[in-house]
Amino acid sequence: MGEPVSTDVRIGVVGAGAMGAAHVETLHRWVPGAQVVAVYDLDLDRAEAVAGSVGAFAASSAESLIQDDAIEAVLVAAPDPLHEELALACLAAGKPTLLEKPLSTSVEGARRVVDAEVAVGRRLLQLGFMRRFDPAYVALRSAVLAGEVGRPRAVHCVHRNVQAHPSATSDGVLVNSAIHEFDCVPWLVGDRVDAVTVFAPRVDGDALQDVQVIVLEMAGGSVVTVEVSVNARYGYDIHTEVVGTEGTVSLSPPYGLSSRRDALDGRRVGADFVARFADAYRIELAAWVDGIRSGSPATPSAWDGYLATEIAFAAIESLHTRARVEVPRYDVPALYG
Fold this sequence. Notes:
The chain is α/β, with parallel strands linked by helices and 337 residues long. The protein is 37% helix and 23% strand. It has eleven helices and 15 strands.
């Protein structure tokens, strides 16, 4: 008898930083039917170390990895400014791709990616908005859409990171951090964003504007507040509450320990998003691989990524003008209908 034929999806990963390395480990340990065969990073030593940990090889370039016929799918966890060109390269190669957010660092770039996928004629891109796979968020959405709190009137969101990256900018708070809310809130309540207004502290010169408070006006009449900070210091903290005509429903801490010491009683707060959303990442990657194997790609799609980008850049305009900015409306391409 010959050797059994592997049915694993052979995956190449572009970007071996903290996020890319975590994805490699998750695919290797937790996702049946996935095999990481190649890793690329500008830091070749880093790529070799991450690849070696799962028996893969370090590719010489992102282009060679994407063009390799032995690689069936690509996961992109490269720096944000590279997302657009890498997404376009993967589409041109016909490779199913999981692309970390954002879709692009500009609205025009995001639209170019959408138009390229529409031209291909089939969905190949899945965006890395992992909250859609988080069990707590899924339960919250199910309760809201089932009408358990009546008609949604307000949504309150908190998004706090421990410490800003040295390269963080005031605009980046919106396009890199708050973009998660820009994606998950419409999904959560089944409604679109009509307008956005951003309130931020006045600072000296080019100092980082942190904390920012964002108000989203939804088409159905509800109002959303988002408090986002990249320098909370005490830990990584995410919270969402939906207030309806018949009650409220909110996330409760799905993980963590409580402790009593030094005259304090409280819950320990995690240090980063990787730990908080560990289950979400596992489910997200499994859904991606299952979608490749079944031919039915999972959402969020490139169109979802484009809509979140539109909201993010409307928010940036509001940040600079201190004015209410309407979010453009577009017809959904048939590919995503």
